[in-house]
Amino acid sequence: MRIVGISEGYHDAGITILEGRRIVYASHSERYSKTKGDRYLHHKQWNKVSKEDTVAYYEKPFLKNLRRIYAGQTWQKPRSRYDVSFGHHQSHAAAGYYTAPFNDCNILVIDAIGEWDTISIWDGSCKNLYLGQKIHHLKKLKSWKYPYSLGLLYSAITHRIGLKPNEEEYITMGMAAFGEPKYDLTFLLDKNNHKGVGDIFLKARSEDLAASIQDLYEREFLKLVDMCPKENLIIMGGCALNCVANSKIQGKNIWIMPSPGDAGSSLGAAALVQKKKLKWVDPYLGHDIQVSVNPKKVVQELLERKICGVAHGKAEFGPRALGNRSLLGDPRYDIKDTVNTIKRRQKFRPFAPAILEEYKDEYFEGPMNEYMQFVAKAKHDYSSVTHVDGTARVQVVKKDCKSIIRPILEEWYDRTGCPMLLNTSLNIKGKPIVNGWNDACEFERLYNVAVF
């Protein structure tokens, strides 16, 4: 029996298809529709669903709409059919738990808002039954309710400094390094911040407001982590993408499913139907581009032009480009402004390095993994892949990585002696990451960047 999980109706719609414990497909709607943060599933995704499939929805529509009415919003309902539904934070927690490498753990879910929950702490456990059978159990231990919301306030400050809420919070996080946390924003946590924070701090620098909300988030986040007694910790919800805060955690084994936001909850909803651990391999689960890529040609292009794109294999499930839909660059040169110009981004925005696992400790110190979920201190002077504070959001490329990025990096190291490349998503600001080969060709044509 196939199980389909869907999340749609509000933002970042997504779909996951399971066959038993295997994840056969998972993708974001925006990659197909070309509408950033698209709220509804695309017909090319829905066409993969048959009438015989069990379809699970990622939240409780009636409860969500009660809260929406309470908040002065309109009543909405899913457009797609579904057979069963689960709680919003329950789906977040499940997406983390059923893909995690451990069973006994706490799950911390932080986002803007679900139905009513904005923060929740869960217990994950597993009991062994006869003949090797196991039963997995998720139990909510504590939750915080709307209007109190760390995520909603972070989005409201993002809007206050001129950025797009529910989309550009990561820019706020990056901007924080240029400011000082001059303002205590704690008093806003209990407010209804759906419509923003108004004209507070009119004369404040955007950089200082960004630093202030990042500082508040980190302090409150670490308090929540301390409320999770178990050594194994899963972090889920859109706020799990705050890699700066994640890096402040001490003494925990951490798992963050690479698509921790609402699209990723489609996976959680599907997993809750069967309540079995999934065979998590990697996040390359989306649309498949079956073209041949010669790493030698990619490296030659990088040596000659210093920048090129790669669109190969299955698209990443999640917001990070991890080698299959990437714009790559030579980090030995100061190409940050050039790449930011191509991508039409603010000049202060940093870029991430992808590095061969064998050399990570020579070049960086601190937490890092294969999914770009933490920041580490650079031990090198390649400014193209470090932020103003000397940190980098590192992608560790392991020997068994299935992405084309691994053989490209190996060839790059053989040719240059440098084990890393600049790696950013193959898109421009405000547009979804390239999905199919036609998208890749269009990117090449419009921005005069070779794509392999």
Helical fraction equals 25-40%
CATH architecture of the largest domain: Alpha-Beta Complex
CATH third-level topology of the largest domain:
DHBP synthase
Could you tell me the strand content as a percent range?
15-25%
Total helix count? 14
Judging from the principal axes of the Cα atoms, what is the shape? globular
What does the secondary structure layout of this molecule look like, with pairings?
Blueprint: E1 2-7, E2 14-19, E3 22-28, H1 30-33, H2 43-46, E4 54-57, H3 61-70, E5 84-85, H4 88-97, E6 105-110, E7 117-128, E8 134-145, H5 150-160, H6 169-175, H7 206-226, E9 232-236, H8 243-246, E10 253-255, H9 265-274, E11 284-289, H10 295-305, E12 307-311, E13 313-316, E14 325-329, H11 336-343, E15 352-356, H12 360-363, E16 364-365, E17 376-378, E18 391-392, E19 395-397, H13 405-416, E20 420-425, H14 437-447
Parallel strand pairs: 1-4, 4-5, 6-9, 9-10, 15-19
Antiparallel strand pairs: 1-2, 2-3, 6-7, 7-8, 11-13, 12-14, 14-20, 15-20, 16-17, 17-18
List keywords for this structure.
452 residues; Nucleotidyltransferase, domain 5; DHBP synthase; 3 domains; 5-stranded mixed beta sheet; 20 strands; 28% helix; globular
Report on this structure.
This protein has 452 residues and is an alpha/beta fold. The protein folds into 3 domains: 1-99 and 261-280, Nucleotidyltransferase, domain 5; 101-256, 2-Layer Sandwich (Nucleotidyltransferase, domain 5), CATH 3.30.420; 285-447, DHBP synthase (Alpha-Beta Complex). The chain contains 14 helices and 20 strands. Helix 3 links the parallel strand 4 and strand 5. Helix 4 crosses helix 9 (265-274). The longest helix is centred in the middle third of the chain and has 21 residues, at 206-226. It is globular. The relative contact order is 0.13.
